Amino acid sequence: MSSKTLTRMDLSEAVFREVGLSRNESAALVESVIQYMSDALVEGEQVKISSFGTFSVRAKAERLGRNPKTGEEVPISPRRVLSFRPSHLMKERVSRGNLRDGKA
Question: Which residues in 35-69 are b (16+ Cβ under 10 Å) and which e?
């Protein structure tokens, strides 16, 4: 497994190479898409990207947890959490280990 991380800069560079926008326009486009997705999630909407997966926000109720060092029970406050559910196509692609160009 590779330890490389895909960053916003990598996405902007890919848009620059693939689409032909300027580097500044590519960066602005990537930022705009990320902002749009973030705003939708903050509002409680799902973000579904076909053949990739679905991002959603779930509300978790208050519950009792346990401090692993002391064994003491501690209340865990209610909160909203972000979850991602990959599509079946993405699950299959990851399990096969296919790269973008089809080489394994």
Answer: eeeeeebeeeeebeeeeebebbbeeeeeeeeeeee
